[in-house]
């Protein structure tokens, strides 16, 4: 009876113990190429069914690991200096083996396990040639597979079509076979950051068949072009630290759900004027490129990062062609340090972007006096209806004389 009582309060325990078992890529922060090692914690995945199946006899635990009474389906074997995968009891659903010295994954390791839903083998020494063929494909209930921070040289094909999250970042993968992603129709998150993939690995519409894919991380690879044929379900796209120099004008036409887009540390010199005209885009990171001018800002965008480029003048008229007091621009933050600005942007920016709170100028590329003048962040309040009307009148004058926008003293906010 005591055991059943424990099971009945499991959902409450999961809510109370909000821990994290793995290092997913967080779009709220920059992708860290060398993250500090974190101690293992517990992660409760909402996609995993945590009901306890009925097994006869006591629930066992491998002697090399530990199991908690409150979490009878999980076995924790992390940070144990293990060189082999220990014996896995038949009832285990979540297996945590990160931060060990495991080099091989054999079929025998999972021979008697049929209900595994999560395996974390990150931060080990696993080589592609030491993974038995089809070892993961036999796990028909597997939802999460963590293999980041290993020594994989090839994509671990084949995989079960039950997978929803696949993390393969920080490996040495240089080849993506044509059928590697075939059948992975349930994957919502694919992390391939920090590998050796190039444009040739994404030919043949491999990604277009992943109809439920919401996030793909391809940062720190060898891409020179935007990956083709991404599924329309995609919401988060990470392409930092590649060699991309061009974005096709209609590239995002079939990606209406894009919410966060990261293209920092590439070779972009210019982008098509309205290429980011996406109704759901909230975060856009184009820092550390070679851009010389700004572009159209969609009304949904909240955070814009364009630091470390070659922008000399911020043309607000290009960013915001007209003001709509009913459907206002949502931009709240702009980071534009390490450009070539010689003066703050026009005050018209605060009429066009009434929600803006911070414009971070930092230090600019140029003389000491120029960088000092723009160092202080800008804070701005919401606009009143009268100010909207004033903005419309001012905009008509600025639109006719765009070349004078950055020359008139009254259009600047000089910070002290």
UniProtKB/TrEMBL annotation:
Cellular compartments per GO CC: extracellular space
Signal sequence extent: 1-20
Domain LRRNT per the UniProt entry, residue ranges: 60-94
Name the UniProt record assigns to this protein: Osteomodulin
Function according to Swiss-Prot or TrEMBL: May be implicated in biomineralization processes. Has a function in binding of osteoblasts via the alpha(V)beta(3)-integrin.
GO biological process assignments: cell adhesion
InterPro entries on file: Leu-rich_rpt, Leu-rich_rpt_typical-subtyp, LRR_dom_sf, LRRNT, SLRP
Keywords from the UniProt entry: Cell adhesion, Disulfide bond, Extracellular matrix, Glycoprotein, Leucine-rich repeat, Proteoglycan, Repeat, Secreted, Signal, Sulfation
PROSITE patterns per record: LRR (PS51450)
Localization per Swiss-Prot or TrEMBL: Secreted, Extracellular space, Extracellular matrix
Major site of localization recorded for this protein: secreted
Superkingdom field: Eukaryota
Pfam families linked: LRR_1, LRR_8
Subunit structure: Binds the alpha(V)beta(3)-integrin.
Family stated for the protein in its record: Belongs to the small leucine-rich proteoglycan (SLRP) family. SLRP class II subfamily.
